[in-house]
Amino acid sequence: MSDTTPLTFLATGSWKWDANQIIAYIKDACTSPSVDRVGKDGKQDLREVYAKIILPSLRNRDPFVRTGEHLVHIDVRTKHKVEGKDIRIPITYFYTALGWIISMVQSPVAPNPNIERILAFYVKWCSTVGKTYFRDQPAPNTASIAWLTLMEGQDPRAVCSPHHNIFSVSCSLPGENPAKLKAAKLRYEFLMRALAPRTLPPAPRFGQVQSDNSTCWVNWGHCAETLAVLCVYLDVPPERQMRGLAIRTDAIEAAPEFRSDLVRKSKKKICDNCKVLIKVAQIAYEDHCSTMQHEEDMNRKKREQDAKDKGEKAKERREMEERRAKEKIRELKERRAKEREENEKQRLADEKNQQARQRQEAADREAKERRDGEKHRKSNRR
Ligand SMILES: [Zn+2]
Predict the structure, then answer these.
(1) Where is the composition biased (Basic and acidic residues) (predicted)?
(2) Which of 40, 283, 318, 337 has the highest CB neighbour count under 10 A?
């Protein structure tokens, strides 16, 4: 495997790879992996999965490999050893094989791994190969990623310890066929072995009545999380916490390119079966869907508060403007009243002046008449 092969998985252009390009990647990853990355055991398992699952499933155009009634599966090792012993998980069909291969050759990833991008690219590749090779069968409707992360305050660089497979991707079992039931049963048996001496109760979803009154028959082993959790959970150091995220696959399959909101919009809450599985396995587990939901709720609340604040400010401004307008009207009224008062005063003053003038004129007239009468009398006496 060339040094650049692991990088091509998350490259923007690989979103649009056709099935043959993806299969070439799988071949390269399985037949010439870096032993430093996957170990000698990993190298052997990758070759076996490629020869016994990948190639026959593509050749037969069936994601499950069957020989007669028998379902072919390979028990691969994960990157963990618990108390020095290998942990094995069953690879039962093409899509899980692809998830496990990616997890083996890509993990551990660089600091700040983009978990959502890894999950989305895995789903896209499953869909691209499925559309070309497994047209008669539906693709898995749910995919999941589990990863280890540090508790708050710890150095994020420590995540990339070469000893830990820090993420694992997997998907639900596709189709309605006997192979699917056999695969689920195999997964269940491995779960029981890994969890022993603890035991799983009857699966909560099996026989559960849904809100639309239909009955759900999802038993142990069907979930996308089953393998992803199993791969990462084992031997989790106490300072680390496992996180996981499941998504619906439809929107991602249809997306022409990777967008960061794709995964957020497709997120799925952890199901009742997986909740019980996590509890029985005693994993410190955080459902990333709840974290994303919490972020979205907080953002929505903030937007609503901002809108409310904006509304209140607008109201305050409106009230102030109303107050100002009223004030102006009052001032105007007062000014008018004052003007009227002044005019009235002026009118009264004018009237008074006129009366005084008239009185004066009358007096003048009278005086003149008196003088004229006097003159007349004098001339008559002469
Ligand atoms: Zn589940």
Answers:
(1) 292-375
(2) 283
